[in-house]
Amino acid sequence: MSDAALTETMAEIFARHRGREGPMLPILHSVMEAFGHIPEAAVPLIADDLNIGRAEVHGVISFYHDFRKEPVGRHVLKICRAEACQAVGGAALSQAVLDKLGLDWGGTTPDGRVTVEPVYCLGLCACGPAAMVDDRVIGRADETTIEEALA
Amino acid sequence: MKVYVPRDSAAKALGADAVASAIAYGAEARGIDVTVIRTGSRGMVWLEPLVEVERDGVRHGYGPMTPADVPALLDGTLDGLGPVEEIPFFARQTRLTFARCGVIDPLDLDAYAAHGGLVGLRRAIAMTGQQIVDEVKDSGLRGRGGAGFPTGIKWQTVHDAPADQKYIVCNADEGDSGTFADRMIMEGDPFTLIEGMAIAGLAVGATRGYVYLRSEYPDAITVMQEALRIGRARGLLGADVLGSGRAFDMEIRVGAGAYVCGEETSLLNSMEGKRGVVRAKPPLPAIEGFLGRPTVVNNVISLATVPVIFERGAQHYADFGLGRSRGTMPVQIAGNVKRGGLFETAFGLPLGELVEDVAGGTASGRPVKAVQVGGPLGAYMPPETFETPFAYEEFDGQGGLIGHAGVVVFDDTADMLQMARFAMEFCAVESCGKCTPCRIGAVRGVETIDRIAEGDAAAKDLLVDLCDTMTDGSLCALGGLTPYPVLSAMRNYPEDFARSKEAAE
Ligand SMILES: Cc1cc2nc3c(=O)[nH]c(=O)nc-3n(C[C@H](O)[C@H](O)[C@H](O)COP(=O)(O)O)c2cc1C
Ligand code: SF4
Ligand code: FES
What we know:
By secondary structure, chain A is an alpha+beta fold.
């Protein structure tokens, strides 16, 4: 992506959130939506727009699990690690899926197809184990339904 | 023919969208006139996708449905569950907060009004702020987000605080494992939350509201956004709420995957665009909240319960319950259970009745070993405590807490040492970092439990000391209450912590 394209997209994002009370998180979410991650080059632009230091922007980005500095796979698979899903075999399912993909939590397959992330509850605790592929939820997930959702 | 199919994300996660398309497609192929209405969920998750067909004004249930069942459904030959509201799990409930959830199209404001919606707000519009606050106090409503603080008293503080701008902030961060009541009401009856927030605004003199909604709930975000748009277009929100001459408008703010941001001061920092670090109290958010101004921070269910209190009257609500726990609680039954879902009931039902009768015991058919109530900071309770009535003080007396009323059931294959380890690990991952006992202590906790797992019995005393340090030296309940699940696991299941060195090797 060229610097000019980035600057243009960022300007559009800033305009969209102008006048909001506490615009930082809405801006970062929009950046995630536009680029799939927070490009390093966006940080000084955000700092300028909000009139704060770059270190502060970095501090906010690093606090939240959702904001990533590196690009991710074409799909993001989240598997619930929390208690209610553990009660119905969630840990074994996570392990099997990670093993099959040859990944650790947070890893991306070499072909860039999928990134696997842990999530702590999807509110699907009465039909666990729960998973989510991009924005699509999966209840009573198993290796087959997860593989289908990634296809 | 009128057919109802939930759009709740638990129903979708189990295939509701495919069933809805199969119904539309099958009806067209057969040339029959079918109206498919997408609703919230009734909360009987083990029956999802639960499809309802209306006959002579009575809704009959079919579930769990698959697309393959659709031809028989349309031909009238599919075996059903009978009238949905007569299914024992549903019939035994007292549905006040969730009266409309699963019944109506969540985005149909006229259906909302036809089922008792907006009556409460109209009544509140005719009252003074103080009268509204008094009504909430009289209902006995306590915060459903965890701490159980009386809602009316919180509102009084904000009402009395002078300021040119005040805020209503709805805490929709719902991070506790085993809980999904907030999600269900936002997806299934969003106008009740909007109405509750508008009443709160009138009560304390706040014209602006925010819903801090976790990013893990994309479906709830979509429904809430759409409901706000409709509410604004129809004059429920805006400069002149229902023609009252009073202003109230609101916005959705999406969280970013930090559990600690459910803590109210961390949440406010997050909304202000900062790291979600917990603030020391005082000042209370009611005095210095969002952007330093007086702010009501309430859980989704606290706010969504306000409309029914105003619709039926404070006394009607207060007549349900036990002791100082008034009204009803939407209990969320999850984990290894035969019948999981949302069960709204007056406070006071014994825990064992919820687990054994309502939920039907474990899905695996094995004995129940432990129940964790109140999310990741709740104690692991053994069947010996099943007589405890589901209510704030009663659980406190058992060294437990009801929190946001999630009930997570484990069968006898659960390894409680691993669950204790997970509690420490979760605290380490989610700590905001402000207090050393929480940030570092939780990491040490994981290591100490690993030593116990390797047969180092002396590490048990260390773990107790560590937990004491966390309890004493933590600013908020994340570090302060993580010892609950850890120590309750060790106390109630000593056999899981008595590992011999040989067995570990
Ligand atoms: C670590 C932590 C996480 C919390 N998470 C939530 C949450 O997800 N939702 C919520 O309503 N309250 C949560 N709370 C409680 C809030 O701090 C606060 O008490 C609540 O939002 C007040 O609303 P209520 O009075 O209506 O319960 C949490 C507290 C702590 C310490
Ligand atoms: S106890 Fe943990 S999460 Fe809570 S304020 Fe302290 S460091 Fe932050
Ligand atoms: S615990 Fe896994 S979805 Fe709630």
